[in-house]
Amino acid sequence: MTLAASVRSLALAAVVAVVATALAPAHAQSPATSATSRSAPTPAAPAATGMIEGRVFDAARGEFLPRAHLTIEGTTLEAFTDESGQYRFTGVPARAVRVKAFFTGLLPQTITVNVTPGLTATQDITLSASATAPAKTRAGDEAIKLAEFVVGTSKEMDGAAIAINEQRFARNMINVVAADEFGTVVDGTPGEVMKFLPGITMDYSAGEARTVSMNGVPSANVPITVGGFDLASAAGNGTSRVTNLDQFSVNSISRIEVHHSPTPESPGSALAGSVNMVPRSAFERSRPSYSYSGFLMMKDGDRHFNKTAGPLDEPMRKVTPGYNFSAVVPLTKRFGFTLSGNYADQYSYEDIVTSTWRGNGQATNVGAAATNGLPFTTPDKPYLSDFVVRDSTRDNRTASMAFTADFKATPNDTLSASFQYTFIGVKHNNRTLSFFVNRVLPGDWGPTYTRGAPALAANPTVGFGEIRVQGAAQDWYGTTDATSLVWRHNGPLWKADVGAGYSGAGLHIRDVDKGWFGNSQARRTGVVVSFDDIFYLRPNKITVTDGAGAPIDPYDLNNYALANADDHPRESYDDKRSINGSLRRDFRLREIPVSVKFGGEVKSLSRDLRGQTVPYNFYGADKAATTTPVTGDDAAGRVLDVPFSQRVGSYGFPKIQWIDNNKFYDLYKTNPEYFQPYTATASDPLTARNFADANQNSIYRNAVGLSKFARETISSAYLRLDAAFFNRRLQFVGGLRGEQTNVRGEGPLTDPTRNFLRDSAGNIVPLRNAAGVILLNNQGKAQPTLIEPATFAVTGGTLN
Question: pTM of this prediction?
């Protein structure tokens, strides 16, 4: 059953940004975005001008500098280096000129270059952090004047300098951070670097920085790209646009750019900004560079070198090794490649307690004077009704590999290919112990206590409270890849780029086919639960008794009855394809530097979700489920997780006995008749059949509800205009953007009329009684004849 929808929209955005800078040093004037000269040869006197080109190199780092700022003294000419450190001036007066180069954190350099009319002069420039000229000697009482002193440098400082320089000369509000600025990121996720940037809020799940929120805007409206192309994400997002970062490695990128202000290039979904991760480039360095690091990972609360219990049935080491490596190899001036990878195996845990207070965000279910349920109260007099303690453990294994290749086909044309691949595997078990009061008498609560209501006189052995032990075990693994191919032209007049990108992600969640139930539950009902000595974290005293007042140990699994389990496999796929291109021309309009850029993009985004939940309700050998009292047939102690139950509980709790999901599933394999649906018997064939039919109907409807597909096709075009005034101290960025989105979706379709019996002409067949009379409903309309009955008939009633 499918439901298709097509949504078309046309967005026209006019974006105007004013950036005013007042940089005192002459070498730091006029921010701009061009990677080459801002001026073309003037048509009036082409023979009186020439060109200057070259590369800017950092001697200390051994790499070429992107976004280095260059000016020619006595003119308004300005240039910026591209990703490979290349720069170019056009329209340079044919004479000896002084070229000044500047990069944040390095000393500026001024070099004289002789320009010949109609020719190109080549001049490479090397910057450093220390002055090369000696200090002047002292003459008489002349004060000693030291040469300029610069503090240098470390890997982290180098990364910071690159980021600051990028931000300094950007025309929009942008934060840039080098991927290695904070040293080795052992868990490998970009979120651990991104979280330090202004305006960024990382949403955490199980201790991992997974999704990005910017300036209060939800993560679904923060596009994440790699090299300008959308990054696929398949980790638990439904059909939304959310991008998770736990399936991508920071080791494969050079830097992270966070754009806070919109420009015509910005997609319509970027409500507050966007994030772009820039792949490594072989032209970043002048000579090969290799690095490797190894490390041990551990949580400070579990530093066992030997194998201990958890996350699942097999003991594992909690101190684990990892490594990463990278190689930047410029083979020639025209070709080079990079290769990087990492591996990490990290054990983590979460100790959580959750308190539910009625009257303070949680609803009550009866009036103030009622004597059953949870009575009404005011926010100034809340009471604790539910309490949960959780022991969650997981093991994360990640591995990644990235490869990029850069080829300079001509002095003005570069072809860049990039590929990133990441694998993640997680073994996870989320164990919880829950206490539910369920019934409180008026006046039996206060800020430090809640007294569960006693059993009624009519049934003095059964209380109203409940305790539960649950286990949620799963093995999920996924892969993400991102591939792109980009051609860039950096000519003296026109700048152009065309690129295509693909990113795919898949996520697979498994349990039963790995040998355990996904979710399991043991219950004990009919008890009285009370909380005493409550403080902000937990009740210091929790009392559980049966209806007659006999104490019950909530930490002993034998006091619980096996209730149910399930198998819930999931499949999630995400594919993103895009093609984009742009063309830019820089010129001068009455000595005013002006840039015109237009471009467009077509991209297709699709997400496909599949899954089902198969319930297994435990009935035992007697085929009679019960949760109070607990008999030997239903007692949960038979599936005790012996190793994990030896752990001392968190937050002051004693040892808690937990369910072993592997043993629970082994019990099903050995005795499937203990579970619903069970095998029909000669004495009771009808009930067994109806149980089976109802169960299959539930499974089918659940699978349909989890089956969803969505595809977006987004086409966009933009025009951008840039102008600079007052020696580029006042700059304007504006333009227009048009964007159209076509959406096709498929999901569950609930149509009760599909169950109506129809004749050959398609007309609904009315329901008749034994006499042939058409039966009418309450509105006087004919009732339809159903292909299958709405309920399953059972002697003495119905089974829904």
Answer: 0.78
